[in-house]
TrEMBL record:
Protein name: histidine kinase
Chief location of this protein within or outside the cell: membrane
Superkingdom of this protein's organism: Bacteria
Signal peptide (UniProt feature, chain positions): 1-21
Domain Histidine kinase residue range list: 606-825
Residue ranges of every copy of the HPt domain listed in the record: 986-1081
PANTHER family according to UniProt: HYBRID SIGNAL TRANSDUCTION HISTIDINE KINASE J
Length: 1085
């Protein structure tokens, strides 16, 4: 045959080769249980075309299974951890995934190299050594572990010299294992199950495998025979999909799909297929340990732990004299997390265990109840199990008395029990029978040595079900405090206590509960050795000849019942595990939502505080500039626009915070007795100027008489203001009508209907549907005039007040909004004199100390207070302010609440403490804060402040709170504009007149002081007459009125002291205003 013919024959045979290989594989259906929360990938057109031409992805699998990664239990389905990720990849790429299963891993790898399959799951460092293959991004961690039999312990890092080490034949490269354990005898098995079973049956000494598949295999049937001894100290690795090295395009697409899978979905997949130790697989070490604690572990690798052999199911010894129980299983997990080795020391007496640990002869106790009387000798860890305390009686005993159930009875207690002191205090005649361990506790009641026994529910129910089923029963609970199972260490072992506490905290509660539940329901743990039943054993030996046949029959029957119950409990446990998993997912979702809500609320609160602080200075200084603009020194129109914009920004901040409070459920109402008609009138007066400016007619149809109802006036006014503001904003011509109807109903309640109608542009039905969504607005020319929060807040506030808000609108004709509320009636508050009216006004300016770490706020408050005629001292932090207060005499202290070093709260506490120590009169302290919340104001008052002001602080708000301490001088009524009019706006002439007027006022004030505090009418009258003439010329109304009042008092022979003091104050204020106007003119020139 020539070469051409041979080549043709070979080419003809090539297409048949893959078919021959595929004939040895079988097709499987991909059963993927994970669903992606993310939308499919947006791929380039070339990639979509390339995938479309392929039509599918083929995933390879092999015999035997590698659970939980690869599972082929059914006749047609392929499932497991790898299947879930493969399904997500196909979903992201938009192509179906088919599965082919090969007789062996070697054949699957050969098919991958030949291009028969595209992907091969559960690939790790073994496949990474193959130069023809490439690995995708990882989808699971590969944490190597060593597994041994329960009664065998290895040292962490042991080289396993001369030991038989089992391993799956495709887990790790043999060369890598030889480097880790050069002296071990490596034995290869085809599956994880076979390797773990070899250790359980004694055919191998240890098994090396990954933590996920190993934990899964142990959970399926080897929990009582083998355990994970330790994690291998090897470089971190992972599981991924293997692809042909030449298929780089598919590798990139698979990596893109894997990168889109969220961490939460990865955790759900791991929980779905893990064997019950998810937290251990995710985090095998305790990162929270301090260096001191790590050093302690390094120096104390082996810890001796004492257990009570009769405290089932917490701790006991089985028929093979091996320690078992909840505490032992928990210590195994702690050992894996910390690297500690626990050496078990057995005991049958709690008092002996306490003595051994307290004296340092043993390191810790594995299971003991918490007791105050032992707290000086032991250090207790946090509890790892809680069980109610119960009263155990004989099955035929009469019911206990409900009031004093233990009165007159013999009560069996464990020696040293913390319950003894309380029992003796409550029952004086009580007879207590002390025993050494829980088994003797039950025997004391069963044998008639005691009437009742007090113990934990888990311990009592265990013994009753397994040993004393027909002789004892639980008669009820005892006390409100449950029994706590904890670890205990010696007084000189604080590091060990801290290590155990952190290890317990690292185990999730559901995993801890699952561990306890396994022992609570598992009948296989009932084999307590007969040496613990001394009394029962003697009785059985005496009666053995007569009862042997009956005992055999009873044991057979009991085993049958136990088996039936075990099967039922196992089925119930599986159902409960599924329910717990669903509840855990629900709890996690709820926690995530609450955490996001808390983060949002914190962010808004902080940002509000940070914005309000500089806005305080901006708004305050603009307000001062507006005051100054009355004298013609500034562009008032521009200042009013800036001031309005700043207030609008502040309202927006308030709206955002209101929305946040409503959504988080923190918005609360503060209803008070309020005249609703007066409240609406006062609110509408605010908008009269805006309506008149647009030429709108605003009418109010309200009841004629006052109507007192219980309502939150601030929130009601906020709703009305939002609705009226919207009506004015969207009405260019026509009218706005506000009406209120009130109708009484049963129980002293009133139904109110508040309607706001306008003839504006109206709202389309489409826009109405979305108007009540946050930050939503109508389309149109006025759409951007707000933040889209007013209507949302108004509706939420109405619903919070138990009512509703409805809107009807026709585009082009107008809008009608109706608020329906049901409010309780209220009695009008009685007329009484307020505290402000009782305070006598002062004669002069206040001495004010201002404390603020923000320079702009200091400048603002300084200008505001000086404009009110007060004298100001400045301090930039609390400690400096405290020193100034001690050295001087101040009438008012105004302090910022949030400052470094010493904040306003601490400054207030320090001042109040020193006032009490020195018996000084209390200075008035006013807090200033950007945290505009009722809770913050209450905190200021609780710390000793007299008032709290929220930033930004207007001049009127500041002025309003000062009269509570002492009233600042009244404004004299001087108007610089009048003087400019008289001088035809000649600055030089105005300046000269101001200088002369200020000098004249100072001389008049000096003349009044020279007369003394109680001058004669004859001496006082000419001075007052001269002052009155000058005030009349300047049209200073305040000074003129004080002069007229004083002249009337002189004429009628009445005392003049009070009137004289008032005139002096008015003159002083006039002089200050004249000099301020003079300074302003000099500054502008």
């Amino acid at each position: 045959m020539n070469k051409g013919a041979l080549l043709c024959l070979l080419l003809a045979m090539l297409p048949a080769l893959p078919a021959h290989s595929e004939a040895h594989s079988e097709s499987r259906h991909l059963l993927a249980r994970a669903l992606s929360a993310a939308p499919p990938l947006t791929l380039a057109a070339s990639d979509r075309q390339w995938l479309a031409e392929r039509g599918r992805l083929v995933l390879g699998s092999s015999r035997p299974d590698y659970p939980p990664f690869d599972i082929n239990n059914s006749q047609s389905d392929y499932e497991g951890l790898s299947a879930d990720y493969a399904g997500l990849i196909g979903e992201q790429l938009g192509v179906p995934v088919q599965v082919r299963r090969y007789p062996s891993r070697e054949q699957a790898l050969a098919a991958l190299r030949a291009g028969e399959i595209d992907l091969l799951g559960s690939s790790n460092a073994f496949e990474a050594n193959d130069a023809h293959l490439a690995l995708s991004l990882p989808y699971a961690d590969d944490l190597p572990v060593i597994v041994t039999r329960k009664n065998q312990a290895l040292r962490d890092g042991d080289d396993l010299a001369e030991l038989r080490l089992a391993m799956v034949d495709h887990y790790l490269p043999i060369q890598a294992v030889r480097r880790l354990y050069p002296r071990a005898r490596l034995e290869l098995y085809r599956s994880t199950l076979a390797g773990v079973a070899a250790v359980a049956l004694g055919q191998a000494d240890a098994y090396l495998g990954d933590a996920i598949s190993t934990d899964y295999a142990i959970a399926k049937g080897f929990q009582q025979t083998v355990k994970v001894d330790h994690f291998v100290k090897a470089p971190a690795s992972s599981f991924a999909f293997a692809l042909n090295q030449d298929n780089l395009r598919l590798l990139q697409l698979v990596d893109l799909a894997l990168g889109r899978i969220a961490d939460s979905e990865r955790l759900n997949i791991l929980r779905r297929w893990a064997g019950g130790s998810t937290s251990l697989l995710l985090d095998r070490r305790l990162d929270a340990l301090t260096q001191e604690e790590r050093d302690w572990i390094a120096q104390h690798r082996q810890v001796s732990v004492m257990i009570n052999t009769t405290l089932a199911p917490l701790s006991f010894t089985d028929a093979q004299q091996q320690p078992r129980g909840i505490a032992l299983n928990l210590l195994e997990r702690i050992g894996l997390r910390t690297g500690l080795r626990f050496k078990v020391v057995e005991s049958e007496s709690f008092e002996e265990m306490v003595e051994q640990v307290a004296q340092g002869k043993a390191n810790m106790i594995g299971a003991i109840g918490y007791g105050e009387h032992r707290a000086q000798r032991l250090r207790y860890t946090r509890p790892y199990m809680i069980s109610p305390r119960v009263v155990v009686t004989r099955r035929d005993a009469p019911p206990l008395e409900p009031q004093q159930p233990l009165k007159g009875l013999r009560v069996a207690l464990l020696r040293g029990s913390p319950l003894r002191e309380g029992l003796e205090r409550e029952y004086g005649e009580l007879r207590i029978v002390e025993v050494e361990n829980p088994l003797q506790l039950m025997e004391a009641v069963a044998n008639g040595n005691a009437d009742v026994a007090l113990g934990s529910h888990i311990n009592a129910s265990y013994f009753i079900n397994q040993v004393f089923k027909d002789r004892l029963r639980i008669a009820g609970l005892y006390g409100d405090e449950p029994a706590l199972a904890t670890f205990a260490v010696g007084p000189a072992q604080p590091q060990l206590q801290a290590i155990l506490d952190k290890a317990l905290l690292s185990i999730p509660p559901d995993e801890l509960e699952q561990l306890v539940s396994q022992w609570r329901t598992n009948a296989a743990v009932s084999d307590i050795p007969w040496r613990n039943y001394r009394t029962l054993a003697l009785q059985v030996l005496v009666l053995a000849a007569l009862l042997l046949a009956g005992v055999v029959f009873w044991n057979t029957y009991l085993r049958k019942l136990i088996h039936q119950r075990s099967e039922a409990q196992r089925a119930l446990q599986e159902q409960l595990a599924l329910s717990r998993g669903l509840l855990e997912q629900l709890r996690q979702a709820k926690d995530d939502a609450e955490q996001a809500s808390r983060a949002k609320s914190t962010f808004l609160a902080v940002m509000s505080h940070e914005i309000r602080t500089p806005m305080n200075a901006v708004i305050g200084l603009l307000e001062m500039a507006l005051e100054d603009s009355q004298h013609g020194h500034s562009d008032r129109q521009a200042l009013e626009a800036a001031h309005g914009s700043a207030l609008g920004l502040l309202d927006l901040i308030g709206d955002v915070l209101d929305i946040s409070r409503i959504e988080s459920g923190h918005m609360t109402l503060q209803p008070v007795a309020c005249d609703l008609v007066a409240l609406i009138h006062s609110t509408l007066r605010v908008f009269e100027g805006s309506a008149n400016l647009k030429g709108l007619v605003m009418t109010a149809l309200l009841p004629d008489s006052p109507t007192w109802l219980l309502v939150d006036p601030l929130r009601f006014k906020q709703v009305l203001s939002n609705l009226v503001s919207n009506a004015i904003k969207f009405t260019d011509q026509g009218h706005i009508e506000v009406s209120l109807t009130i109708a009484p109903v049963d129980g002293g309640m009133f139904e109110i209907t508040l309607q706001i109608k306008d003839s504006g542009v109206g709202i389309s039905s489409i826009d109405q549907a979305r108007l009540f969504t946050s930050f939503s607005q109508v389309d149109g020319r006025q759409a951007r005039q707000g933040a889209g929060l007013g209507l949302v807040i108004s509706r939420e506030l109405c619903e919070l007040m138990g009512g509703e808000l409805n809107m009807n609108s026709i585009e082009g004709l107008g809008t009608q909004v109706a608020v329906h509320l049901t409010l309780p009636g209220a009695a009008p508050p009685g007329t009484e004199t307020t505290g402000n009216a009782l305070i006598e006004p002062g004669a002069g300016p206040l001495q004010v100390l201002i404390v603020d770490d923000y320079p702009a706020n200091l400048l603002l408050l300084d200008k505001q207070l000086r404009s009110l005629g007060h004298q100001v001292t400045l301090a930039e932090q609390g400690k400096a302010a405290l020193s100034l207060w001690q050295d001087g005499r101040f009438d008012v202290v105004i302090t910022d609440c949030s400052m470094p070093v010493m904040d306003g709260h601490e400054l207030t506490r320090q001042i109040r403490a020193r006032e009490r120590e020195a018996n000084l009169p209390a200075v008035r302290i006013i807090g200033v804060t950007a945290n505009a919340q009722a809770e913050e104001r209450q905190r200021c008052l609780d710390n000793g402040m007299d008032e709290c002001l929220f930033k930004p602080i207007g001049l009127q708000a500041l002025k309003a709170c000062l009269p509570l301490a002492t009233e600042a001088p009244r404004a004299s009524g001087f108007d610089l504009a009048q003087l400019r009019h008289l001088t035809q706006d000649d600055d030089r002439l105005v300046k000269r007149l101001l200088e002369q007027l200020a000098q004249s006022s100072a001389e008049d004030l000096q003349a009044l002081h020279a007369l003394g505090d109680n001058p004669s009418g004859a001496a006082l009258a000419p001075v007052v007459h001269r002052v009155k003439g000058g005030a009349r010329m300047l049209k200073v109304k305040g000074v003129r009125q004080d002069c007229e009042a004083l002249e009337q008092a002189i004429a009628q022979g009445q005392p003049v002291e009070k009137g004289l003091a008032q005139l002096r104050a008015s003159l002083h204020t006039l002089e200050l205003e004249l000099r301020q106007s003079l300074s302003a003119i000099e500054g502008s020139n």
